[in-house]
Each structure stands twice: as structure tokens, then as C-alpha cells.
Amino acid sequence: MEEVLGTDWDVSPGPVAVEYAGPTEWSVPAGLFSTADLLLKDALVESANVQQPGRSLAVNLNHAAWQVTFNPNNRSQVTGVRCYDLLENQIRTYRAKAVVLAAGALESPKIALQSGIQNPKVGVGIVDHAIYYRHFVVSPETLRNLGLTPQVPSAAPPREEPRSTKLLLHHKLATKQDHAFDVILELGAQFNQGRFVDRDHIEDDLKIREGYLLCEIVFQFYAPLMEQNSVRLAANGGGPGKPVDVYMEVAAVPGALLTQARQVAKKELKELRALSVLGEDQLYAADGLPNLKLADVGGVAHEVGTLRMPIAGAKGVVDKDLKFEGYENLFACDNSVFPCSPAGNPSLTLVALARRCAKTVAARV
User: Fold this and answer.
1) What mean pLDDT is reported for the chain?
2) What pLDDT shows up at residue 176?
């Protein structure tokens, strides 16, 4: 990649959240997980290694969190959470010394709104990465010339899984004004997304493609929160099973940044001798740069910002330790607390924030 883009770019393997290979035939691929399973597994491992008498973990499945409850004599103190038991069709209340909302950028502000949290920024600002992308294919001949020919599963056992590659690129000197985007290059894109579980589907896909490799180049841009975007309780009121109204515009990308992205795309596509996917528009526009497509709202489901942290000296909904402003023991820990949408995926940053939040909660309870 340095030969293509120069030494100002960092290139690293892109981690894939969903791997193809399952532990057994017909199984769901590794990487698809249940939060409940992970919590229980962690508790069992810790219990085996740490002597903590009386320590326990309860996971209440099939419960929809609805509201937090408050001390009637002190509205700034949370006493627990009210849920709707989806199996028994009844409301249940659980008491707690501290409550952490971790239901995502749509559900967490919904719970806060239904609870009457007093902050005008609750639910305001929701935004996702601004994303431009392009699908393309690489011919079998080019794959051979570049040494990229994937291993194809044979008809008879033992079968080999199809190969795919996902690369993450970002500019070493990126700023908000210059190269403010991450680049994801996927070769064998359909396998990176975990779309196949049944091997028969893989073989059908190989026949359809006739040796051509489906690829994708994606540009994810930094985006500030957008004050006109919002998550609000629906007109028919809140409560279990009630929807929210979401108004969300796509973040605008400055023309100069988009031109930089298209120039990067041109270098990569030329190197791979990329071809248009059958049925899609021409790969290159009249100006000689690639036709990049704007992704729809929620294209990667990394919505952020509905319970924002403070930024540039202005207070948000939560403070730097993710505690709600004005409340003693109520926290949020999910993408809703981000004060902007970074160009990169938010998972690792959220892990760091979760560790910070956990230390704060532990110190208070």
C-alpha cells in the first residue's frame, strides 16, 4: 500500500466482527455473540479465580428496560429500574445502588426521556459517520497477476474456506480539515460481512461470480453532532413497546475532503484494475475520479451523541465519568455518550470509556 499511497498512510489489518468459520457445521459464525452469555461467562471465570463470598450476577432476559426510579424524597438519587417482562407481560421493578443505561443511542435516551430526566440535550444531536463507498470487482486474471487468487472450496472434503482480506487505512497527519476519514478496503467483501453460514450458499456465490472477486472501498468521515437531529418520544406517549420518533439528517462532508477521498479511491482502484459491478453505474465520473456513493442514514449503525459528554467547555448530558449531570448515581455507557462521531469505528473508545465508568461506579457503591 505504501507503493500506492505513499508513506504518509498507516495500513493495518481490519478486524472483522463476524468471522465465517463456525465451531461446527451449520453453526452461527464466531463473532456473533450474546451480551448475556459474555457476562455469565466472565462471572464464572472470575468466581473460579477470585474468592468473593456472596458475589453474584443476575441476568434477566426478555426484559425491556422502561424507566429508572427515583427516591421520592430526593429526585437526584436513582433507586432502581422499571422493566417490562416480555414473557409474563407484566411490569417489574429492580432496586439498585447505581444504574447504568447501556441500551444504545436510541434506547438509552428513550429510557431517559420516559424517566423525566431534566436536561434539554437528552436525545439531541444523533449522528452517524458520513460514509461514501464503492463496490467493484477484480477479474480472475488480475487476481492471478497480483498474487491475490483466493483459495476456493473444493467439491469434495476436505473443503477449504474462501479467503478474504480487510484493510484499514488512515492518514498519519489527519486533521478535521485534511484527510479526516478512515478508509476500509475489503477484498472478498461478502465474506467479511458474515453473510454466509450454509456452505451451499458459498458455492452458489462462487458460480455466480465466475472467479471475479467482489470488493468494496469505504470512507468513514468525522462528523460533529447535529443539533437538528433528535430522538423523541412518539406522539402516542412512552411506555413498554412504544416507539420513538427519530429525525436524522446525514452529516455533510466538505467538498475538499470528498475530493481527497476520491483521489485515494482512484489510486486504489487503478492498482487493482477495478471493474464496475454488473448493473451498477460507471466506476469513474466525467472528471476522471471514482463515483463514490453516499450511504443511507444508519449505514453502519454507529449512531452516537444522544446523551453526550461535555465538549469545548459546554456541559452535556453526562460528565467526563459518564455520570448524568445533576444525578448522584445514574450513568450512561454506550455510543450515546460520544460528543462527536469519529471517523474510526467507536468500539475501542467505548471499551476505554466503560472501564472509566466502571471505576467511578465501583467507587460510589
Assistant:
1) 84
2) 83
Q: Where are the beta strands (DSSP E) in the chain?
A: 9-13, 63-71, 74-85, 90-95, 99-101, 124-125, 130-138, 165-171, 181-187, 213-221, 223-224, 226-233, 244-247, 293-294, 330-332, 340-341
Q: Are 189 and 133 in contact (CB under 8 A)?
A: no
Cell numbers that stand for 196 in this block: 454466509
Nearest in space to 242 (alpha carbons), one of 62, 352, 111? 111
Rounded CA-CA distance 190/152 in Å is: 14
Q: Are 99 and 318 in contact (CB under 8 A)?
A: no
- Cell 478486524, residue located: 15
Q: 65, 63, 70: which is closest to 117 by C-alpha?
A: 70
- Cα 195 to Cα 189: distance, rounded to the nearest angstrom: 10
Contact indicator for 136, 276 with CB cutoff of 8 Å: yes
Q: Judge whether 162 and 195 are in contact, CB under 8 Å.
A: no
Angstrom distance (rounded) from CA 51 to CA 57: 15
Q: What is the pTM of this model?
A: 0.83
The predicted-structure confidence for 146-196, as pLDDT tens digits, reads as follows 776 655 444 444 444 446 678 899 999 998 889 999 999 988 877 655 555
Is the bond preceding residue 158 a cis peptide, omega within 30 degrees?
Answer: yes
Q: Hey, where are the domains in the chain?
A: 2-31+128-226+249-294, 60-116+307-364
Query: Where would I find the H helices in 198-275?
Result: 199-209, 255-271
Mean pLDDT within 203-231: 86
Per-residue pLDDT tens over the stretch 221-271: 999 999 999 999 988 766 666 788 999 998 899 999 999 999 999 999 999
Rounded to whole angstroms, what are the CA distances from 67 to 79, 90, 106? 11, 14, 14
Q: Which top CATH class is 60-116+307-364? A: alpha beta
Identify which of 125, 92, 88, 123 has the alpha carbon closest to the alpha carbon of residue 109: 123
Q: What is the pLDDT of residues 12-32, one digit of tens each?
A: 887 655 544 555 555 545 555
Distance, CA of 226 to CA of 125 (rounded, Å): 5
| pLDDT given for residue 38 in this prediction | 75
